Amino acid sequence: MSGRMILLVTAAVITPTVASCGIGHHSVSSTEIPGFSTHTVQELCDFPKPFFAEKFGYRDFRIDLMSPASMDKKLDVGNACTYFDDAADSSTNGEEVGELLLGPFPLEDHSARSEVLDTFIVDGSKVVETSLPGLNTSAPGLRPFIQLDADIDGWYGSFEFWGRDDATVHAGGKVLVDMISKLKGSRREEFSPTK
Q1: Helix H segments across 47-165?
Q2: Is the pTM higher than 0.85?
């Protein structure tokens, strides 16, 4: 399990506990926990499928979720979908082809990344492209397995896949920004704790 996944699992366990206890003079109901979305994990996991089909020809997916989670769970603090191309080798668990994450706080520290490859703007939002240590092998002239990160209204998204070329990376950036914009919850500052 990657460090990012451990962070997400820890956050998913801690946040509901803190919210149920109340802080100071306020108590916070489950519907008022900052950053909750009305969208589901299923919607998150479905979002990049057209991108994978068009750019890589992947259509036969196995999707692993961050535990504990189910497809009908509402998006909150820990949401991750990891994609495997089971058609690549039916004798194994399949080849990992990507991962998509979304949550109402930073998913990890960018300083842990080996190299920032690019920064670009999609529909007014900054997207940061970084390489992934240990997954940086690729064919000559092609980008390695990369990660794109973006932040919209306090919701942070991350999208990993084989970079291939500029067109693929920028198309992935568009998927990431569209996904965050559509699936994010309310801005955190819009929530008010009850007395």
Answers
A1: 49-56
A2: no
